[in-house]
């Protein structure tokens, strides 16, 4: 399948979660076996071209795509978790949200110093979560230079934010607007 064909599998839900937002719902993409396989293949090819030694994905939808890419490439998967989800001592980073803050955590032993880790997620909007993930992975000793997304919402500036922080961005498709 082509990126344009995959884009047709994304459901747009108007006014969710707030009025004026066009929510890009990937559940219709992951519910299509052929579309999911094509998406994972495209992400895996990009991760392989980036020389990935590990794949990191943020909870929750980054687990879907990141784990599938890691399996396809036979690489380790590093889950980036919400606070309090790991039963061991973790390292974490707090980051700002539009209204408040959040935190991401990882197992510090999941990464070998200097590992080339590629971030995989379903969508990049403002980039705050992905930027925090890159910072956290770097704190753990990873080399983070590439991120991969199914969808980019370029008007929200997330790709620019990551690139300003030394992380290249690849996306399969883009949707203009919010």
UniProtKB/TrEMBL annotation:
What reactions does this protein catalyze?
AMP + diphosphate = 5-phospho-alpha-D-ribose 1-diphosphate + adenine
Q: Name one GO cellular component term.
A: cytoplasm
Note the InterPro entries from the entry.
Answer: Ade_phspho_trans, PRTase-like, PRTase_dom, UPRTase/APRTase
Q: From the UniProt record, give one GO term of the biological process aspect.
A: adenine salvage
Task: Name the EC number(s).
Answer: 2.4.2.7
Gene3D superfamilies from the xrefs?
3.40.50.2020
**Domain of life, per the record?**
Bacteria
Tell me the protein family, please. Answer: Belongs to the purine/pyrimidine phosphoribosyltransferase family.
Name of the featured protein: Adenine phosphoribosyltransferase
CDD domains (alphabetical): PRTases_typeI
SUPFAM superfamilies documented for this protein: PRTase-like
Which GO molecular-function terms appear in the entry?
Answer: adenine binding; adenine phosphoribosyltransferase activity; AMP binding
Q: Does the keyword Cytoplasm apply?
A: yes
Q: What pathway does this protein act in?
A: Purine metabolism; AMP biosynthesis via salvage pathway; AMP from adenine: step 1/1
Q: Which organism is it from?
A: Pontixanthobacter gangjinensis
Function as written in the Swiss-Prot or TrEMBL entry: Catalyzes a salvage reaction resulting in the formation of AMP, that is energically less costly than de novo synthesis.
Q: Where in the cell is the protein located? A: Cytoplasm
EC class: transferase
Per UniProt, the keywords (alphabetical) are:
Cytoplasm, Glycosyltransferase, Purine salvage, Transferase
Q: What HAMAP family is this protein classified in?
A: Aden_phosphoribosyltr (MF_00004)
Query: What is known about its subunit structure?
Result: Homodimer.
| Phosphoribosyltransferase domain ranges (all copies) | 55-143
């Amino acid at each position: 399948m082509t990126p344009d064909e995959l884009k047709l599998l994304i459901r747009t839900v108007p006014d969710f979660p707030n009025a004026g937002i066009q929510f890009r719902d990937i559940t219709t993409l992951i519910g299509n076996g052929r579309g999911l396989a094509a998406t994972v293949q495209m992400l895996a090819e990009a991760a392989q071209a980036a020389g990935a030694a590990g794949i990191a994905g943020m909870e929750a939808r980054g687990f879907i795509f990141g784990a599938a890419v890691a399996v396809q490439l036979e690489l380790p998967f590093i889950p980036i978790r919400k606070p309090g989800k790991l039963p061991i001592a973790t390292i974490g980073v707090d980051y700002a949200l539009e209204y408040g803050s959040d935190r991401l955590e990882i197992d510090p032993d999941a990464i070998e110093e200097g590992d080339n880790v590629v971030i995989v997620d379903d969508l990049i909007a403002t980039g705050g979560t992905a930027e925090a993930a890159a910072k956290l992975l770097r704190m753990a000793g990873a080399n983070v230079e590439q991120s991969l997304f199914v969808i980019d919402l370029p008007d929200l500036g997330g790709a620019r934010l990551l690139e300003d922080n030394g992380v290249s961005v690849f996306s399969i498709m883009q949707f203009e607007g919010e």
